[in-house]
Amino acid sequence: MAWSRQLDILALAGVSACLCVAFGYQLVLGELPCAFCNLQRLGFLIFGAGLFLNLRHGTNAWNYVLSAFGALAGSLTALLQMFVHAPAGTRPTGSAFLGFHMYAWAYVALTCAIFYALLSLAFIAAARWQRTTSDRSVWRAGSAVVSAVFLILVAGNLTSTFLQNGFGPFMGGGQQHYRMLYDGDVMAKPCTASDHPELFQRHVRD
User: Fold this and answer.
1) Once rounded to an integer, what is the mean pLDDT over residues 189-195?
2) pLDDT in tens, 104-143
3) Which of 110, 112, 8, 115 has its CA nearest to residue 57?
4) HEC states along the chain?
5) How many CB atoms lie within 10 A of CB 122?
6) Which is it for the CA torsion 154, 156, 161, 166, positive or negative?
7) pLDDT score, position 193
8) What average pLDDT does range 38-63 have in this prediction?
9) Which residue, 50, 195, 15, is CA-closest to 121?
10) What is the pLDDT of residues 149-160, one digit of tens each?
C-alpha cells in the first residue's frame, strides 16, 4: 500500500524530529534526561522501529503492533511522570515549551502515535504482507533519508544513555554531569563565580 508507506515516512520523520528536539534540550541547554525521560525516548525508538521495518521490508501488521507497544509504554511512562509532578509544591523537571513541560508533550505525541498505529493496523489487518514497488522516486529518497536519520538518532541515544549512566542506575532527575565523563558527584551543579565569589576573586589576584 503506497499510502501507508508514505504515512510511515511522515510518521518516522515526526519521531526523528521529537528526538532531535530532545537532543537539543540536552546538548544546548544542558538538561540531561532523567530515568522517566530515557524511558519515554525508548518508547519513541520502539515506535519508530516498527515504522522503520515497514519502510525496509514492506508493510506488515506485526510492525504496527510493535509500534503500538512502544508508543503505549512511552505514553504510560510520561503519564506517570505527570502524576509524580502533580502534587502541589513539587518542582517540575526541565524547561517548559508553550506552557507544557517535555514529558507532557511526550504524552501527547505518544498517545497520538498509539492511535496512528492502531488505525494503520485496522486498515491493513486483512491485507497480505507485501513489498511496495510503485512509490515515486521522491518517496523512495525520503524513505532512505528518514531511515538514515532515525538510525543515527538510535545510535546517538544509546551512546548518550551509556555516557550518562554507564552500567549504574538511572537518576530520578536533576543530573548535572555524564557519569562516564565526570569524576565526582554527578548531581552537583557546576561551580560558578556567583556561587563562591571570594574564591574566584582570589584566583584572579593570584
Assistant:
1) 50
2) 888 999 999 999 988 887 777 655 544 444 556 666 777 7
3) 8
4) CHHHHHHHHHHHHHHHHHHHHHHHHHHCCCCCCCHHHHHHHHHHHHHHHHHHHHHHHCECHHHHHHHHHHHHHHHHHHHHHHHHCCCCCCCCCCCEECCEEHHHHHHHHHHHHHHHHHHHHHHHCCCCCECCCCCCHHHHHHHHHHHHHHHHHHHHHHHHHHHHHCCCCCCCCCCCCCHHHCCCCCCCCCCCCCCCHHHHHHHHHC
5) 11
6) positive
7) 45
8) 87
9) 50
10) 888 888 887 887
The radius of gyration of the chain from alpha carbons, rounded to an integer in Å, stands at 21
CA atoms lying within 13 Å on the CB side of residue 51: 35
For the entire predicted model, the pTM comes to 0.72
Locate 174 and state its grid cell.
Answer: 536533576
